[in-house]
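To whoever is covering the structure queue this week,

Two jobs came back overnight. Logging them here so there's a record in the thread.

Job A:
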Amino acid sequence: MAFERAEKMGQASIRFDLFELDAGSGQLRRRGLPVDLPPQAVRVLVMLAERPDEVLTRQEIKKALWPGQSYGDFDGRLNFAVKRLREALGDDAERPRYIQTVRNAGYRFIAPVREQKFISADSVDCSIPGEPLTGSTQKTLVAGKGLPLRGNRFLAFVALVIVAVAVASAFTLRQHGPGQPTGAEGPAAVGVPKAENVLRVVSVSAIIPEARQRIVIKGTGFGLHVPYAHTDSPYLAIRDLTGHWSAGRMIPQNSDEVMVDVENWTDTEIVLSGFSGDYGVKGWTLAAGDELEIAVWNPQSGVGPGLFHLGVSGGNNPR
């Protein structure tokens, strides 16, 4: 089992992109914040991330997730787990950044990973650089029970640095306010804009009663998001308040299967290429005059929703 292997490895921590996966506990974090995932989806991620660039067959995964079970809709369960996993990662099955589907085989984890292992204090070399270990010094270093005099000075210096960092962190928290992200990744996170405390949708281009159309949403604080096609983005929804249906942002309340295809997503602009899936089925269509609500969340910070209301432009599709 993947978790059992992780425990033997000494609580391995696997990092990729903005994510950190604690394989021992099965906890996934994005920029330090926990990501909500069902256990089966986490176990699939652990299996894939532990064997990057290798193809894991669906049979291997099913055998690991449901050992000894010979009946049940295992394919459906696995499909659901992978779908939830891609939603949480912001991945796209057609243009994957993390999980690639290998046709008629299984899945491959394609993101570069960085694995770290937490080691015990007994294995840490606490000697002072450049100072040879004497017999007495060796005794004081056994099991981390003590440090030589110069080591104590160094420890005092480290403690002073920690106190300074704590004071600076407290000041930063007061500046940002409780619960707001302080940018754990810092400015060094190249290509990732600093999360905005306020997300605003300023304008939305005209929306017409057709499935395929170019929709441009402009504003601030949108963050960054990968393109999404033929599947739901967890961070965008278009709701037809008149027709009582919605597209995008997969939530339990959404009983329809209409998707919003994301063509491009930057911190100030989102470009959509229209609706896909079951648009036009069961009354899930736009009609001239329908009231729409656009809802946007920031994928990095979770801030949102930013809301915007507009009506469907005229056309030959009255409700």
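Job B:
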Amino acid sequence: MPPFTWSISRDGILHSCERRYYFQYLVTARYNSKKPLSREIALLKQLKSIPAWEGDCFHTAGKYWATAQRSGRNPSKQNILDWLRKEMSRQWQQSLSLVGQNASRAEGSCRLFEHEYGVELPANQLECCVAVTSGWIDSFLAWAENVGIGATIRNARSCWIEPEVFGPNAPGFHMEGQQVVVKVDLALHH
């Protein structure tokens, strides 16, 4: 069992909805449990809503861009948007293919709440999701170009792009004998 950790988001969930906190952090739910309720909870903890998924896709595309910068490549906006469309389409199809399937066989896969529970969606929902996320990427890339962050990443002495949050190399510090772990999207050292 990983060590107990606390975060601002965990604290916010506790104070906004104790039921959500209970299911997200306290209930032990396994995909292979003999108890149907535990299997259902495991599935629910894996599902994402479409807006959360769009945010994750944006975050992944930003990481893709930053990683390319670090390796000395500067992909075009169109290249990144094409990659994003392909990745979102892949995850969308994966989610559709897993509807009603045993959660243990799909661990780590993209599973959307709306698909699993048969929420009626417009025929062009995927295209709408791609358009929304592409708009965010377009804004991000305009900002990145304006402030020159690509060159900053390429020229940094050290660069951390989403390092692992757990383990001995987790980013953070110790205070009064307690490890404080920080989730880092991007950190640069010049």
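Note for Job B: The two ends are 37 Å apart (CA to CA).

Please reply-all if you pick these up so we don't duplicate work.
Q.
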